[in-house]
Amino acid sequence: MDIQTFWQKYHSAERSFCAVDLSCADFHGVNLSGLDFSNSHLDQTCLIWADISGAIFTGVELQETVAVWVQALWTDLTEANISSADWSCANLTAAILDRATLVHTTLTGATLSETSAQNTNFLGANLWGAWATDADFSGACLQQTNLATIRLTGAHLAAADISWSNLSGATGVGANLTAATLEGSDLSNSDFTEACFREADLTAINCYGGCLQHANLQNADLRGADLTHANLSGADLTGANLAGADLTDAVLKGVIGMASSSKPHTAGYLNSKRMIFRLI
């Protein structure tokens, strides 16, 4: 379908545009809410300030699109390919991104609150300053992503792969990261109070100055973790592996389940001569 035909159908109130090719089209500021673009090609389109709320984009090719400030509330983007795109400041509240591909996509300052992004691929994406409270990233790939200062309060990230990513200054109060992988990630100065990291892979993380108060770290793998100046007061470390972890000047008041250092090679053993912690 060429763009002229599209506009004719659009102005005649046509709502279905499935399997069409509108690559490189300019939809700047256009109201596309409620339209069905399933399985269409919209690569390199301009969606700046467009409204696609409630629209259906399942299986759509949206690579290299520019959608800064796009309104995409409740939009269905299941299995869409949005790689190498710029969706900065996009409003994706309650949108569906399950199994979508957003490799190297820019989502700085975007709103993803209550968004479902289960098993979605965000490899190398930039979500700096994004707001993703109560979002569902279960099973998602967030490897090597920039999640600095992101808001993940109440978010679900069970079994997500967030390894070698930047979560410095992130807020994830009450977030669920059960069995998540965060190997080598930067959580410095982050706040994951009351978050669940049960059976998570936290090897070699940098959590300098981070807050893990009352966090569930049962059976978590914290080998080689940098927890200097971190606040773990009230955290549950039952069964956690802290071999080689650095807890210099960490706050451990009321910590549950930390094994004694006199029991080497057991869960919770601290293999660190530099360990100094405060109990007050």
What is the compact description of this entry?
With 280 residues, the chain is largely without helices or strands.
How would you sum up this structure, described in words?
The chain has a two-stranded parallel ribbon with strand order 1-2. Helix content is about 5%, strand content about 0%. The chain has 1 helix and 2 strands. The protein is largely without helices or strands. The longest helix is centred in the first third of the chain and has 9 residues.
Secondary structure category: little secondary structure
Kindly provide the radius of gyration, computed on alpha-carbon positions and rounded to a whole number of angstroms.
22 Å
Largest sheet: 2 strands, parallel
Mean pLDDT: 93
How many helix segments?
Answer: 1
- The N- to C-terminal Cα distance equals 69 Å
Largest sheet: spatial strand order: 1-2
Q: Based on Cα principal axes, name the global outline.
A: elongated
Give the % helix.
Answer: under 10%
DSSP E strands, number = 2
Strand content: under 5%
Given as residue ranges, the uncertain stretches (5+ residues, pLDDT < 50) are 260-280
> What order do the SSEs take from the amino end to the carboxyl end, as H and E?
HEE
Protein traits:
disordered C terminus; elongated; two-stranded parallel sheet; single chain; 280 residues; little secondary structure; 1% strand
Topology, element by element:
Elements: H1 3-11, E1 250-251, E2 277-278
Parallel strand pairs: 1-2
